[in-house]
Amino acid sequence: MREQHQTAINGINKPRFSKNSNSDFSKTLRNRVSTYFKTNNISRHANKSMVLKTMVMLTVYFAPLIFINIGMVTTPLLLFGLYIISGIGMAGIGMGIMHDAIHGSYSKNQKVNTYLGYTMNLIGGNAAVWKIQHNVLHHTYTNIEGADDDINAPFFLRFSPHAKKNGLHRFQYLYVWFFYGLSTVSWITTKDFIRLDRYRKMGFFNKKNGYRNALMKIVGWKLIYFSYALIIPLLVVPLSPWIIVLAFLSMHFVTGLLISIVFQVAHIMPNTEFPLPNEDGVISSDWADHQLATTTNFSPKSRIFSWLIGGLNYQVEHHLLPNVCHIHYRKISGIVADTAKEFGIPYNTKRTFIAAIIDHVGVLRKLGKVQPVHT
Prior knowledge:
Mean pLDDT: 92
Keywords: Membrane, Transmembrane, Transmembrane helix
Radius of gyration: 21 Å
Structural class: mainly alpha
Region (Disordered): 1-25
Domain Fatty acid desaturase: 77-349
Transmembrane segments: 50-70, 77-98, 174-194, 214-236, 242-263
Strand order of the largest sheet: 1-2
Distance between the termini: 29 Å
Low-confidence stretches: 1-12
Pfam families: FA_desaturase
C-alpha cells in the first residue's frame, strides 16, 4: 500500500513508524480493495473516463496557448481570458494527469506513467523534483515537522504548530491566498532549482552525474515551457509586453490558487494531527494510522467537483492507496471508511469544500496566535 523508498534521507527529521499499532488494518484494507477490483474485473489503473479526462485537460491547457501563439489575439480581454482558461487546464493536468502518472497509478505500463509524468514539465515544473517532494517526503512523513516538505513553509507562513512563530503569522489567514496564487510561479522560476540542490544534499541524485543531468534537464524543459508560454507570445501578440506578462502571471495565479487550496485543506485542518517522534525517533502509530490521522476528505458527494480536481477530495484514499488511479476513489471510499470504523480509526471528512476552506482558515488563524508546541 505504501510506496517504498529506500533512498537515504540525510539532514532531515526521518522518523520511523510503530509496527505495533493496528497493523491488521493495512492488511485487511489491502485485501478488501484487491477483492473489489478482482470481483468487478476492473483494473486499478486508468479507465476510459480517465483517458477522456486526460484529453480534455490537455486540450483546455494547450488550445488557448496555441491560439495565442499564432498571433490571433489583439485585445487584452481576450488575452487574459485565454491565459486564465489555460490556467484551469494547467491545474487539471497537475491534479488529474501528472499526479497519477508520477505515482505510477495511471497505467500498469511504467513508460506510459513516465511520459504522462512529463506533463508536469510541460506546465513549467519538474517531475523528478516533484516525485521526491510529494511521493517520498509528503506521502511518507505527512504533517511531520521537518520531514514533510509540504508544510516546510517560508518564514512568513506557518503550517505546523511545531514551527517557529513570528508576528507576521497573525495575519497569514488573510494574505496566504496571495502566496497560494504565486506558488506555481515559484515552481517555474526558483523552487525546482533550490529543491534540486537540497535533495542532492539529502542523498538523492547521487548516481554518477545524477545532479548535473537532472539540472540540465530542468533547464532544458523550462526553456521549452517559457518559449511557448511567454516568449513567443511576447513576439507575436500586438500588445504591450507588460500586459502579456501580467496575463501570463494571471494564468499561474489561477493554477496556484486552485492547486494549493485543494492540497492544503486536506492536511491543515482542525481534526488533523501534527505528530512528533519520541526521543527514539519513533512515531507512536503505524504508517496507515498516521495517514488517517493527518488527512481529511471533503465534498465526497460531488462527482463533478471530484472529476475536476482529480479525485483529491478523497485524500484519505489517495494517501492510503497511492498506487490506485484516482478515478476509482469514490467507489472504494466506502471500503476504506468501513474498514477504518471497524478498527476504531478516525476517518476525517468534511461535507463540502467550502466547509473545509472555512476550517482551514480557522487553523491558519490559530497557528498565527499559538506558540510552538514541543512534545
